[in-house]
Write a structure and sequence with these properties.
The protein is of the alpha+beta class. It folds into four domains: about 1-165 and about 235-280, no CATH class; about 165-235, no CATH class; about 310-360 and about 380-445 and about 525-550, no CATH class; about 570-735, Metalloenzyme, LuxS/M16 peptidase-like (Cytochrome Bc1 Complex, Chain A, domain 1). It is globular, with a radius of gyration of 29 Å. It starts with 7 loop residues before the first helix and ends in a 6-residue tail after the last strand. GO terms for molecular function: metal ion binding.
Length: about 725
């Protein structure tokens, strides 16, 4: 709990629970326990009165289901607004959470996010499925001075929508898209969809099962709400508004209080009691280290049902001879001058992706890649037929035609690659291709849109810097990567914190120069020799899988050979006032090729390191030395193999392109890797432990970054120094100077 009790999300959520639910209601509870309570809780306190309490009850009455048979939750009688402080020296950005019981909400991105001076960077709506449903709207990264104004502005928007009415046509499109997303989830993650339904029904549903039967028929509910009138979308209910406000003063108070608490505990216990407690701890360790029974059943890989991915390409050159390649070859089309790989899997949807190497981007333009990615799906559009779409029109039409779209950089270890993906219904395959064409070639940079997106990215940074683990990785990138050409460094939070304000200033003072730079950046990226296209879906059911590209994509006549795919590539202690615990990240060299013979045993060893109740778990987490270290050895490594195999099999449908095109491995590599995993012996694990893992903890072979609360920095530094690590203490703003 020390890792999260006093962060923004936890403090705001706990206060919401205490305000929303009455005394005695389980929904008020902090399920992880509060530190001040956990410190007072011992085994004796739990067990001593247990026998008496059980015996005193006599014959038990009929079972009552928690929550379902409890007193009903009362509705809020009035609206409440409070400020909740959380620790951070950076007091620029906070959070707003607004909660209702049983009331719908509206879309607010346009009013609060997509404006020149964003009032927040994202709005998230969530539903707490309980005996009385609660709906929460969370506004992330709100400028501190705007926290109260945002709440007022939200309800002003609600009133205006009530007066002006809802765009019911757009509402129907949103409902249709959400229905498709549900179908997609059933196809991609059926275990999550149905396990969630079953769990909620088990807790709250009727024991006869009729609620579960209704729950799995949720597609029918989309038809019902599609016929709602606009009056059914607004209810004027009381609400709770919580303003998460960063406070340097509160951060200092937490540090001082913790130091005083520890010192008082030492004085209260005294030397003799501390020695006695140490003996009790050692005795508990012995009890905790009883060996786990070695009998573990590991199924054979022969029992695994693989997703059968069949690959073809627009230019096979004899590499593929299968039903998919034959179908592609029979699609009479003109020569398509760019690389396309088609992966056939059973699906009602088609995923269209374009992978682009950033290697040719010059040093002076690379820092702007982050803003380019942020604006990719949110710019005005000029179609080849002369039609102009504003940013809002473009987003609405894109949402109507797609199920999802996303962008990523750093694909499966290739930090020099970026990827744009669209998922569409199979019937809209050609439409998806046209969208990819328009997004790549026909969008229009404007100073307004660039500034809005840059401001959103800048406002996101304070929240990111409150995450200890994330910042340890970011600082490590400053050690490992080229500061001029590496995306890991250039697009990292610490560098972008400098780049974004400079870009916003340039957009204000010289917008034409800024637009010229972004235009040049785009021209380099969308040069055909820099991209590779991937299509996955039921390829043999698409009417024109190959010729659709000739008809709907960019007509390119002057082609060059494909650019090569870029290969993937000290110590600090950093003070971070927003956290109360410590995060340490160690890095050392690993295998340098994707087909390395070390890969299978190292995968198994890494799975061993993550195993619950293993040696590391017991020796480190079990003794309270760290929260997240895991290891399991000896015959238990058979269970680790099962974990690795499950991970590889579950990803097989999406790994074909990455394995064959980026990693330059043969088709079916994952299946062969699974066989190698099954064949790993204990001595292989020992060899990997010596060759790689031990290097993580040697000063001469590893880089180390530690992120810690200010009050613990001195102790952490002294501890590392005793083991030969010379760690320099810095604040985040000094790391890249």
């Amino acid at each position: 709990m020390q890792g999260r009790q006093n962060n923004c999300d936890s403090r705001v959520t706990l206060r919401y629970q205490r305000l929303m639910y009455p005394e005695g209601c389980g929904y008020r509870s902090e399920t992880g326990g509060l530190m001040e309570c956990l410190r007072q809780l011992g085994v004796e306190k739990i067990l001593d009165p247990l026998d008496d309490r059980i015996a005193s009850k006599g014959k038990l009455p009929p079972h009552k289901r928690p929550f379902v048979d409890s007193a009903p939750i009362p509705l809020l009688e009035k609206s409440i607004q409070e400020t909740v402080k959380f620790p951070d020296e950076d007091e620029s950005m906070g959070q707003v959470v607004i909660a209702w019981l049983d009331t719908p909400v509206s879309v607010l991105q346009k009013e609060f996010v997509e404006i020149e001076e964003p009032l927040c960077t994202d709005i998230d709506f969530s539903i707490n499925e309980q005996t009385r449903t609660a709906i929460l709207a969370t506004f992330e990264n709100v400028p501190t001075e705007e926290l109260e104004d945002l709440v007022t502005g939200l309800f002003d928007v609600f009133k205006r929508i009530v007066n002006e009415g809802i765009d019911m046509e757009r509402m129907k499109n949103v409902i249709h898209r959400d229905r498709l997303k549900t179908l997609n989830e059933i196809e991609v993650n059926p275990h999550n969809v149905f396990s969630g339904l079953c769990i909620v029904d088990h807790v709250y549903g009727k024991e006869t099962g009729e609620d579960l039967e209704r729950g799995v028929k949720d597609l029918g509910y989309y038809e019902q709400i599609a016929n709602f009138s606009e009056k059914q979308y607004h209810i004027d209910n009381p609400h709770i508004a919580l303003l998460g406000c960063p406070s340097a003063e509160f951060s200092k108070k937490l540090i001082d209080d913790e130091l005083k608490r520890v010192e008082k505990q030492r004085e209260t216990l005294g030397p003799e009691k501390l020695k006695d407690l140490e003996k009790q701890l050692e005795k508990a360790k012995e009890s905790n280290n009883v060996p786990i029974p070695p009998q573990i059943i590991v199924p054979s890989i022969e029992s695994i049902t693989f997703i059968n991915v069949i690959t073809g390409r627009n230019k096979s050159e004899g590499k593929y001879k299968n039903i998919v390649q034959g179908y592609l070859d029979s699609d009479n089309s003109t020569d398509i001058p760019y690389f396309i790989q088609f992966d056939h899997i059973p699906s009602a949807f088609v995923n269209i992706s374009i992978y682009i190497t950033t290697e040719p981007i010059p040093v002076h333009l690379r820092p702007y890649l982050e803003i380019y990615l942020e604006t990719f799906y949110s710019l005005p559009l000029n179609r080849p037929n002369g039609e102009h779409l504003t940013f809002e029109q473009m987003v609405n039409e894109l949402n109507t035609d797609t199920i999802s779209y996303e962008d990523n950089w750093g694909i499966k270890g290739f930090e020099g690659m970026i990827c744009f993906s669209l998922k569409v219904e199979a019937s809209k395959y050609a439409t998806g291709i046209r969208w990819l064409r328009d997004l790549l070639w026909n969008t229009e940079f404007t100073a307004e849109r660039l500034k809005i997106c840059a401001s959103k990215l800048l406002n996101d940074i304070p929240q990111t810097k409150r995450e200890g683990y994330e910042m340890s990785l970011n600082v490590l990138q400053t050690i490992h990567y080229d500061r001029l050409r590496s995306n890991k460094y250039v697009l990292g939070v610490l560098n972008q914190e400098k780049v974004l304000p400079e870009t916003i200033k340039l957009l204000e003072e010289n917008p034409s120069k800024a637009i010229e730079m972004f235009t040049k950046l785009k021209e380099i990226l969308i040069s055909p020799e820099n991209f590779r296209i991937h299509v996955s879906g039921d390829i043999v059911k698409l009417p024109n899988p190959k010729s659709a590209w000739a008809e709907n994509f960019k007509n390119i006549t002057d082609t060059k050979p494909l650019s090569p795919i870029p290969s993937p590539q000290n110590g600090y202690i950093i003070k971070l006032p927003a956290i109360e615990n410590t995060f340490a990240t160690h890095a050392a060299k690993g295998p340098t090729t994707f087909d390395s013979p070390d890969l299978a045993p190292l995968l198994v060893l890494c799975e061993v390191l993550h195993t619950m109740e293993g040696l590391f778990w017991r020796a480190i987490r079990g003794q309270g030395l760290a929260y997240g270290v895991f290891l399991k050895v000896n015959v238990e490594s058979e269970g680790a193999k099962s974990g690795v195999i499950y991970g590889l099999v579950s990803k097989e449908a999406t790994e074909s392109f990455v394995s064959q095109v980026l990693n330059n491995l043969e088709s079916g590599f994952n299946k062969k890797l699974i066989s190698r995993v099954q064949a790993v012996k204990f001595e292989d694990l020992h060899a990997m432990l010596v060759k790689y893992i031990t290097k993580l903890f040697m000063p001469e072979t590893s880089n180390v970054v530690v992120i810690s609360a200010p009050g613990k920095v001195k102790d952490v530094q002294e501890g590392f120094n005793t083991h030969g690590f010379k760690l320099e203490v810095k604040s985040l703003d000094k790391v890249i100077k």
